[in-house]
Amino acid sequence: MGVQRALTIETDSYPLAEPFHITGYVMDRTDVIRVALASEGRVGRAEASGVYYRAGEDVAGMLAAVERVRPAIEAGTGRDALQGLLPAGGARNALDCALWDLEAQISGSPAWMAAGLADFRPLRTTYTISAGQPGAMAAQALKFADARALKLKLTGDGLDRKRVDAVRAARPDVWLGVDANQGFDLRKLDALLPTLIAAGVDLIEQPFKVGEEHLLDGLGLPIAIAMDETVQDAGDLDKIDGRADVVNIKLDKCGGLTEGLRIASAAKALGIQVMVGNTIGSSLAMAPAMVLGQRCDVVDLDGPILLARDWTPPVTYADGLIHCPSGLWGGITTDRETRR
């Protein structure tokens, strides 16, 4: 146990600029919890939205989970002990990242140094395009004129080939990935594959349902496969070892930066590449993910782009890169004058 702390919790709801469509869901807002940990005259903050496909990951469930561990957190429980107090998910993510922020402020050393990184830099991020009519998706690709990388949401509904062709015709210059959110089966993937190859698609994310990872056995696709929903924490890596090329780590899914870094190390030891993603959160949620992103092969931290309003100070996007301002979280910044 360490120094006594005061824990406060609040909720918020960020409206999306436009409805966001993925396989099986249409989202118009993201509901979050925000925690603040005060100690030694400093306040560490973090935000979590949880994951929509896991029970108990709504605001009420996350609030209840945080309240269950309030006595331990206020008594000084640290990040390592926290991992055994709460399961993977949004509640642990909020507390874990708030602890990282608080520790950085008290120590005067940025979170990226505490994570063992040699440097902290802006990251090329994908800009994600919601599933819709092919022409509308192409128009969105052109609207994201600054993007160097795009990720398309596909649904397996018969329009996917036209979606891919339309976006690639509009943006022949970008890295291109697609995300099915469990929306494909073998037949749908096989039918779409020639289009993906012809379009120069670099990544196919979560093509099959959780529990159907065996469908990847022996496929030998010429495009890298990333798995998201299948891998909740480091214990799930064995489900994709030898089957997938990339694991998508989301702090809301795995329960914070501490576990996210652990998954990244374990994945790389298995020869699996690492991707950092998000669950559509504000800049306060992107900042800790940027620390993990320094170790990643693919970065998908575009959540604030999709919101009608954001946290202040916000991350910024320029030339396809996500930049972190001073004063946002964890003592990190991509301003070269102040980042060390």
Tell me about this structure.
With 340 residues, the protein is of the alpha/beta class. It folds into 2 domains: 104 residues, Enolase-like, domain 1 (2-Layer Sandwich), CATH 3.30.390; 201 residues, Enolase-like C-terminal domain (TIM Barrel, Alpha-Beta Barrel). An 8-stranded parallel beta sheet has the order 5-6-7-8-9-10-11-12. It has a 3-stranded antiparallel beta sheet with strand order 1-2-3. Strands 4-14-13 form a 3-stranded antiparallel beta sheet, with no helix packed on it. The two termini are 30 Å apart.
Shape: globular
How would you classify the helix and strand content by structural class?
A: alpha/beta
CA gyration radius, whole angstroms: 19 Å
- Major sheet: 8 strands, parallel
Q: Do you know the CATH topology of the largest domain?
A: TIM Barrel
End-to-end span in angstroms? Answer: 30 Å
Which strands sit side by side, in order, in the main sheet? 5-6-7-8-9-10-11-12
Q: What is the C-level CATH assignment of the largest domain?
A: Alpha Beta
**Spans where pLDDT lies below 50 across 5 or more residues:** none
Number of domains: 2
Looking at CATH, the homologous superfamily of the largest domain is Enolase-like C-terminal domain
Approximate strand percentage? 15-25%
Please estimate the helix content. 25-40%
Order of helices and strands: EEEHHHHHEEHEHEHEEEHHEHEEE
